Amino acid sequence: MLNTRVFLVELSFDETYYYQSIIIDQKITELVAEQQKNDAKHAHDRSEREQLKEDIANARKQKESISKALEKKEKLLANVRTQIGQLKANISMKQDEMGTELVDHLTPEEKDLLQRLNPEITELKETLIACRANRIETETRKAELETNLSTNLVRRRQELEAVKVSGETDKLDAEAEAKKQELADATLLVEDVTQQLKRVSGSIAERTRQLGKIKDEKNKLKSLEESYENTLQDEAKELEQLLSNRNILVAKKEEYLKKSRELGPLSSDAFDVYYSSLNYVPSFDSMRIWCFCCCTRFPILLGGMFFCYCYHLNLFELTGFFHSANYRHRRRNIKELHKMLHRCNEQLQQFSHVNKKALDQYVNFTEQREELQKRQAELDAGDEKIRELISVLDQRKDESIERTFKGVAKHFREVFSELVQGGHGFLVMMKKKDGDQGDDDQDEDAPRVADMEGRVEKYIGVKVKACSPFRNICGVNVSFTGQGETQSMKQLSGGQKTVEILNLLIVDMIRRLADMANTQFITTTFRPELVKVADKIYGVKHKSRVSNVEVISKEEALIFIEQDQSHNV
């Protein structure tokens, strides 16, 4: 029981310190917050004070500028007043002179005085101009100095005075102590750096001696390198010489190969002629042939010609062509061989115009001709099939045209006989055959006859033929009385023409009832009632004798119709 009480007492004692520490922390937090507020307020006051100082300085500057301007204005006012006084004096003088009598001539004394005063006036004017220039220059310099004083020096003086007033003695003492401590640290640092400098100087001397040794070795190596470079240059020159010789030999080789290719295959007759000129028939066992392609000396005889293993024609080595002992005593000298070569070249020049590749070209052209003949046969077969297809399609197309035309012509006859009692009207198909345009007088219901090529005659249009009940009248003639009297379309009245048009419209309406949906009507009109119900309107415009079709609006079309009607009126 006693131990429990002691524990409770100790616990209460610890709780007391705990709560006291919490209270102290809260006070510290409040004091810190208050200090922050005071610091913020102090900073705000300081900024306001600086702003007020700047405002005061600006006000002073403004005051000084205003005072200077006021002084200038006062000086200007004094000058103006002086000028006003002078002008008033001149006015009074002129008024006094106005009351006196005019004098035509000056007295001799006045003339002498005028002559003396004119040079003085000129000198005084020049002096006045110079004084004005000096005054302007002096005023400009004065303004520059005043500007410099007000913008730089006065501001700097104010800043120094502010620093002087705001300076505190304790702060300056602390700064002095800090500077002394910095000086002591700097002195120690200088001593340390001095010792390091001595060590570095000794190291530099040692490195300098080592550098001298390295330079000596470098010079030796450089001299050795120069000797090697000289040797390398000499070898490079020799190599270039060898390469140039090699290129020359390769060029010669290419030239000889080209000549051998241009020469073409030689027959055995050429060798027989050459051997007969030498009066010697060689033995294949004793001769050697040199090939410039595969570098072989083995004779191979194919078809009367000598070939090597690479199957190129051999060029004979003239200086060592035969190694047989039987031919050595017959060998000719170089001059004779050059003469023979010259004669051979002259003979070859006579055949320079001959095409050496004629045989190859003949073979190629023969193959191309056979290939083209095959292609021509294929194209002819295709053309025949296409013509057959075109003929079938033309026949089907003309049959469709005939079928449609028969139906329209039938309705036209029926409608015309009902509209015109006693008259007869027909639709005649206009054809074009052998370059002529004529009417087909045969019955429209009869089948069409094909031409010599198996194709139906071409149709170029449809026209109206009307006949009386007594005789047929071909052409565009109509009969409205039924008594044989016919008239051309130009002789018909407006009502009769209207009947013809009405007949065609009724036939078109009958045909339209059998058409599919989505039918379009395309008309040429100058009537505003048709324009108002149209879905799309096209206008034909002429410019520079060229017509253009453009889509126009209803408003433009109506305006055009109104203008046309007013023009006709």
Residue-averaged pLDDT: 71
Q: Return residue spans where pLDDT drops below 50 for at least 5 consecutive residues.
A: 1-13, 279-330, 434-456, 468-486
Shape by Cα distribution? extended
What oligomeric arrangement do these chains adopt? single chain
Task: Please trace the helix and strand order, writing H or E for each element.
Answer: HHHHEEHHHEEEEEHHEEH
Give the strand line-up of the largest sheet.
4-3-5
* Total domains: 4
The strand count comes to 9
The amount of beta strand, in percent, is 5-15%
Largest sheet: 3 strands, antiparallel
Query: Mind telling me the C-alpha Rg?
Result: 66 Å
- From the N-terminal CA to the C-terminal CA, the straight-line distance is 139 Å
Q: How many helices does DSSP assign?
A: 10
Helix/strand-derived category reads: mainly alpha
Instruction: Please give the share of residues in helix.
Output: 55-70%
What does this structure look like?
This protein is mostly helical and 569 residues long. It folds into four domains: 2-92 and 118-163, no CATH class; 264-356, no CATH class; 397-517, no CATH class; 520-569, no CATH class. 68% of the residues lie in helices and 8% in strands. It has ten helices and nine strands. The strands form four sheets. A three-stranded antiparallel β-sheet has the order 4-3-5. A two-stranded antiparallel sheet has the order 1-2. Strand 1 and strand 2 (305-307) form a beta hairpin. Helix 7 (358-419) crosses helix 8. The longest helix has 98 residues, at 2-99. The model is unreliable at 1-13, 279-330, 434-456 and 468-486 (pLDDT under 50).
